[in-house]
Every structure is written in C-alpha cells, then in structure tokens.
Amino acid sequence: MPDTLQRFPWLKPLLPLAVFLAWGLAAASSASEAYEGPYVLLPWVSGVVVALFYTASLAFALVYDQTPKPVDPEILLRNMLVGGLFTLTLVLLSQLFPPANRGPLAYFTGEVYPLLACLPLIIYQVRSFVRIRHLIDERTVSTRQWLRTMTALLFVSAFAALFPLPDLALFALFALAAVPAFSLLFRVRWIGELTQSSRVYVFVYLFLITWVHLGLVLWFFVEDAHDIFFSQAYQNPFPLLLLIFNGGYALMSLLSVLFNWPMTAIMERRNNDIFGFQSLHEQISHQGSAEDIQELLLDLCYRNSGARAAWFTRPFNGGQQVQYLKRGEVALGQISRWESGLRQQATAEVVEREGHLYVRNAAHHEHLQDLGTQFKTALSFPMSVNGHPEGSLVLLKEHEDAFDEYSIRMLGTYVNQARLALEKNRLVAQAVENERMKNEFEIATRVQENLLPRTEPVRTWVNVSVAYRPAQEVGGDCYDFFEKGNDVFIVLGDVTGKGMGAAFNVAELKGIFHSNLDHLEDPEEFLFRVNTAVSACFDPQIFLTLVFLSFRPMENQFIYSRAGHCPLLYYRASDGQAEYLQDKGMGLGIVRTDRYRSHIQVNSHRFDTNDIIVLFTDGIMEANHPETGEEFGLERLRHIVARHAFFTAEEIKRRILDDIQEFLGGGRAGDDITLMVIKFQ
Amino acid sequence: MNTTNKPTGLNLISEPIVGALILKISGELDASSSLDFDVRLKQLIAEGHTHFIFDGTELAYIASAGLGVFISNKDDVYDKGGQFIFFGLREGVQNVFNLLGLTDLFTFVSSQEEAMDLLA
Q1: Are A587 and B100 inside 8 Å of each other by CB?
Q2: A626 φ, ψ to 5°?
Q3: DSSP designation for A108
Q4: Does residue B5 form part of some domain?
Q5: What is the CATH number of domain A453-680?
Q6: Do A296-429 and A453-680 share a fold?
Q7: Which CATH superfamily is domain A296-429 in?
Q8: Closest residue to B100, CB basis, from A498, A541, A586
Q9: For chain A, first and last CA: distance in Å?
Q10: Contact at 8 Å (CB) between A377 and A402?
Q11: A116, A133, A345, A464: least surrounded by Cβ within 10 Å?
C-alpha cells in the first residue's frame, strides 16, 4: 500500500479532499433532510456521498499507512488506545448536554453533533483496522489472502451504502464477512513475541481498547443512526463491520494474552536462547579470537541460565597455570576451592552425564559442604578442544536442584557451540601456519637451488656427479665449483641452521667465496679468509663445516682440507678398498680470531685412474630407519661405494641415493642430503 | 636421531672449588632444548663462575645448535682464564666433537676425577 502513493502521486492531495468533501456533503444532506424546503437533496445523493466518504476514508487510511516496521505491538496498541479514548470522548460529549426538546441547542446536540462525531469515529475505525492488519500479518500467503478478502469486503460494504439494502442482502453480507473475520480473529501470534515487560502494558492497553470499542458500539446503536445514516444501525454494514471486527480482535487478543501469560516467560527465554546461539555462531563465522569466544560463552550462560555466579577456567602456559573469568558474586579464593572440590569423586547429590557434572545439593557433597552454604547447586561443563582439555564452565545457583533439564541441555549446547568455534579457530590458525611454512619451504628451496651451480665441471681426467635433496625444512647444505682456466676447485659444506635463515647464510657464504677467488690456489689462505669473513657476518652460534678440494692432474694429486666436515671417503681402485681419510681440521666461524690459522690442515693425496672420492653432508649419515631408528651410517656408505665402484660417478651416485631411499622406506630424511661422487678417469 | 623423549636438563651437581662448577647434561641437546641451555649457561657465566666441567654421561645426542651454545659462550669463559671440560661423553657424541675439531678447543677426559685433576 505505501507503494500506491509512489505509483499514484495524485492520490496524495485528492484523498483527504475527497474525505472532507464527502463528509461535508453527507452532513449537508442530512441537515437538509430535517427541513423540507429548497435545500432538500435527492435521497440517493446522500447515499452516494456516504459511500464516497467510506471508500475514501478506507483508501486514505490504507495508502497513508505509516506504521513503522518492524511492528512494535506495545506502541501500536498505545496509539490505538489514545485514538480510541479521543474518539470516545468526542462521541460521548454530545451526551453530556442535557437533552432539550426544541430550539437550536436541541437541534445541535440531537442532529448536527452526532453527525460531526461520525467523522472521527469512522476515521478512527479505519485506522484501527489498518493497525490491526499489521498485528495480524504473519507474512504467510493464507493470512495475507484473508486480510485482502476482509479489506475487499469492507469496500463492498462501503459500496452498499449507496442505497438501502434489503435485510436479506445485509444478512448475506454480514455472513460473508464473518468468514474472513472469524479466520483473522484468531491470528494472535504476535503475542508470542512479547517480552515479559511489555506484556503488562499490552494487557492494559487491550483491556481499555476493548472497553472503548464497547462504548463506541453502544453509542452507535443507542444514538439513533436513523438520524445519521437514514437507516437503522444494523443497516450500516461498513461502520458496524469495522467496530465489530476491531473490537472483537481486541477482545480476542486480550483473552489470549491473559491465557498465555505463563507462556510468555518461556517464549522470552527461548528467544534469548536463539539470540545466544546467533551470537556464538557469529563468532564462528567472523573469526573471533579464543578469548572473545570464551567471554561470550560465559556471558551467555550466566545471563540465560539466571545463575548467581559463574566462571570459566582457562588453562594457559601449557596447562601449568590457570586463569579465571568470572561473573557474579564469587571470590577467586572460593573459585579454586570449588574447582578442587568438584574434581574429587563424590557419590551424594552428584549427577555425572556425558558433557557435564551436576551437583544437586552442595551442602550434602562430601567435599563442598562449607561452600554449599552460599550456593547449593553447581553445574560444571568441562570443555576439550581437539581432544585437549581447554578449561571448564561452572555455574552456581543459591537454591538446591535449581537447574532444570531444559536449562542443562541448552547450556550444554552453548558449550558445544563454543567448542566448535574454538576448534575451528585452532584449525584455521594451524592451516594458516602450515601454509606459511609450506611457502617458506618453497621459497627457501628455490633460493637454495638457485645458489647451487647448475652444471658439474667437465674434464677429461675426472667425472663429477652431485645430488642435492632438501629435507622437509631446508637446511644449510651447499656446494660450489670454481673453474680457473683448466683448474677445478670444489667446495662442499654445511651451515648450521634451517629454513630461510640458513638459505640466507648460504647466500652470504657464496658471496664470501666469490670475493676470495684469487686465493683458491692457496687453500690455507682461502680458508683463513673465509673464516675471517664468516666470523664477521654470521651470528655467534652459527658455524659451518666445509671440504675444500683442488686438483693437480699432471701430478696425479689432489689437495684437500677438511674444515670440521664429515670425513672424505676414498676408494682405491688398485686394491678395491674404500676408507675414510684421517685428518684434522676445525669448522669455520668457531675460532673467530687469527688463531684459526693454527687449526687449518691442508693435505695432499695421490690419485690413480678409477679412484673415487665421495663427499657428503651429515644428512646421509644421520638418516634414520623409520622402524629401528638406526642411522644409515658411514659403514653402509663405504660398502655401497666399494660394491659399485665399477660404475660411472653418475651411476654410483644414483645407487647410493636409491639405497638411502630404500633405507628410509619412502620417508623423507630429517636433514638435507648432499652427495658428490668424484671419479678419476 | 635418537627417539628418546627425555627432557633435557642442566643440573648443577656441585661446586668443588670456588668458581668451578660441575654440571650434568642429560637428555638431548637439539634445536629447541639448546635455547634454554644457552640461557642457563649465560646466567652461570654472568654469576662469575670460571671453570665449567660438563658431565656428559647422560647426554644422548647433540645437534649443531647444542654445539653452537658451547662455541658461542667459550670466549666469555676462556678470556677469564676458564675452561670447558667434558667427561664421560658417549662415543657418538664424542665423535661429533672430534669431527668438528673441537678437541683442540675444549678438553675431553674420561672421568670426573681427571677433570678435577686438571684444575688442580
């Protein structure tokens, strides 16, 4: 109906005009009826103006309906009462004047005034009808159809005022109108939404409205409608239908409020519970923090259960400490006593069901007797999130056995909701963390792989094959080849640390190598300078191990220094023996002064064709068997190399890796694996 | 890698001579337990103790992070004329120290008596 004003804006000025015009004409025609003379209008004109008056009033009220939505019954009924009292006062005023038999005053009070009073009466009735429509409207198809039917019948009865109807037709009209009216009179669902505070007001308003309508109906019948509407009261279906419908609905609502009085408390409680669930659910969807969820749970349970005191225990610091959130009149000292009392086994007055512990009467509880003087009933809900105990919610009431089944069930549902919210919270945080770690691993791996040389050096006298397998979390393994003319220099090392930090250190180390390329021919100097640079750059707890190799193919010799790294494995083709070279050396970044020089040992070693050097990092040595926990170890490596020494460097490397893979049984090593096979040819 | 779940502890056994502490390390010194170990050791060094004798009979495993703790704190001790002395290390653990060349830096003996003799 409000859209009607937008669609037909010309209704806005037209309708009120029509109403007043019609009323004016009705008044005039009625007045003229009393006097015979030149101002007598044709009787049927009166009918037309009255019908016009009714129709315009009803249309006016429907179109100008400004009831705010959502509908507040208390305010709506209050307005209806005020309007009703005003109207009643107006219509009854005429009764105050003493009836005079003749003269202008008699005429005024007898004839004109009642007509004047009809305007507010009809206006009030159509407005009340429109207000009642709002109350009835249940937003279902059937209700709205009945309302439309009723409204249509009212328009029909307004039309019926055009001419006096035979009694049968009137009776039929009333009977017809009774059908939707009867159906609508019982639609009082809005009563279920009333809060406990507003139902008192609503009751009083309805009570008074009913009396107001009674007064109006009586007046309508008593005041000889003959004078107003040229007919008996019952021959005016429009005002009568309105009065009966409005008054009847007020009466029905009044009785319903009265008979549903106790239900209102229950309905309100259920409404609160639903709102409580909504709030908790919002926390789930809006990623509330764990603390927010716990606070909300405590507040909801405390308020909705009517408990006198409540608290929530929150373990933190790995379960070693406990924090209490509390509501109500209970001291912290008492809380810890309650907690220890509740934890202990007791038989009397305790009901333990899944999900909660209910103490019916703490005064009879073996461990809570002294606490039970203040609070007799205790209800405790332990909460565990993803299997870990996460705290508990405890509610106290003064009287014994004060929580009913419904409350306990409802509170349990709140606790469950909160638990779900917390679990989801946890899982999301975990997922985010996993994603972050995965990203970090991917980045670190990519960085590491970019720092490692892409190709092995190619020489006629040697074959080098290298493999790098990063672990779940990238470590500090690295290797590099330096070629100066025909010379080849190899370094293979391991920086302490894991993840992005280690990758950055490797990058720094690479930089340090490359700034010392001039000293590669003097291994002692090279290592000394690298140590100095590393000592300046790396954190104090970070150090690295390193193997440095350079070759003198003309002399069948190689030079090496093992700076704290895993021992070099050397296979001698002449006697088929593989053994670990014995030597000394200290890692870099440990002695961070010039004294490091004294810890450097540079060795030279002879090589022959088909001899093999195997370099590796401790990821291989320490690879654990998934079942026995045994380490892969040096011995195993030695045997594999000896067994497959006939193959190319590439093949040998592959076989070693296969063996490690088989050893790990498909699992991943805990540390990076770097393997370099150098075969002389 | 060991799969024992013994918590790592650094326990003060005794102070036989003023300024020299005998400390028992038990469990595993891996990346996480090394953090607490570092804090504790720094605390003891700050308290003014000179010599540190570590009883490694119950040390099951040491990772590079653990080694880093000894390495990074040695200067504070050695500059005051103190020493890090280890005794009773298991073979695997001793091997780790050996490979890294730490035998030239720290002192390794086989028993508490030998350690005490060194200080005398």
Answers
A1: yes
A2: -60, -30
A3: I
A4: no
A5: 3.60.40.10
A6: no
A7: GAF domain (3.30.450.40)
A8: A586
A9: 100
A10: yes
A11: A345
Q: Are A349 and A364 a contacting pair, CB within 8 Å?
A: yes
Domain boundaries, chain A: 69-266, 296-429, 453-680
Considering Cα of B38, then B43, then B45, then B49, what sign does the dihedral take? negative
The one-letter amino acid at B89: L
Structural domain includes residue B10: no
pLDDT band of residue A649 (cuts 50, 70, 90) is: very high
CB B53 within 8 A of CB B77: no
Element (H, E) at A532: helix A523-537
Q: Give the Cβ contact number of residue A86 at 10 Å.
A: 13
Q: Write out the residue range of the structural domain in which residue B45 sits.
A: 26-119
As to burial, measured by CB atoms within 10 angstroms (0-12 exposed, 13-18 middle, 19+ buried), residue A189 is middle
Q: Which CATH number covers residue B95?
A: 3.30.750.24
The tally of domains found in chain B comes to 1
- What is the C-alpha end-to-end distance of chain B, expressed in Å? 37
Picking from A498, A505, A541, A634 by the largest number of B CB atoms within 10 A of its own CB, the best residue to mutate is A541
Q: What is the pLDDT of residue B3?
A: 41
With CB atoms and an 8 Å threshold, state whether B68 touches A587.
Answer: no
Closest by CA to A560, choosing from A527, A604, A607, A524, is A604
Residue B8 domain-assigned?
no
CB A396 within 8 A of CB A428: no
Determine, for residues A629 and B104 on separate chains, whether the beta-carbon distance falls below 8 Å.
no
Tokens at A602, concatenated: 């540079």
Query: What pairing do the DSSP bridges indicate for beta strands B51-55 and B84-87?
Result: parallel
- Inter-residue contact A674 to A459 (CB < 8 Å): no
- Most confident by average pLDDT, A57-66, A74-83, B21-30: A74-83
Q: Structure pTM?
A: 0.54
Chain A residue numbers touching B99 (CB-CB < 8 A): 545, 564-567
Using a CB-CB cut-off of 8 Å, the residues of chain A touching B104 are 584, 586, 599
